[in-house]
Amino acid sequence: MTMLDSSTIVAERRSYEDAQADVDRLSDEGFPVASLAIVSRDLRMVEDITGRRDLMRAVTERAWAGAFIGLWIGLLVSILASSEEDVSMWAALLSWVATGIVVGGVLGLVSHLAQRGRRDFSSVGRIEADRYEIWCELEDAERARAALGTTGMTFDRSS
Description:
It is a single chain. The protein is elongated, with a radius of gyration of 27 Å. The chain contains 4 helices and 3 strands. The protein starts with 6 loop residues before the first strand and ends in an 11-residue tail after the last helix. With 159 residues, it is an alpha+beta fold.
């Protein structure tokens, strides 16, 4: 048996932020918020295409990532080695950065070629919902409705 089996909807909001604000308001009023749940309804995945991902972009992005990783490894090695010669510390740091650039670039090249033209774009995905329901355990439901100003409203539990 889940919490929703012994609960009812006490409010419905169009945005998650509004539902979250309602729960926060109930919390501020001393309501037992452990008896609440925010349920997202009518979910969909939205993928915003941010650009074309050609071979050069794939190599460049991975090379930058490799340079960053190489920089951190080089800094760590330089600190741990604590060489008295500043020149060798800088040389080690630069060699790690260069190695990171090369390894990252090669990985970018190989991964892009391995995809053989499939999914040669970049994107950012997100999940959206049409509505957000605030569910409350039955014994606290009327108190929650009164605090949220939804007394007398009915909500469809089936969809």
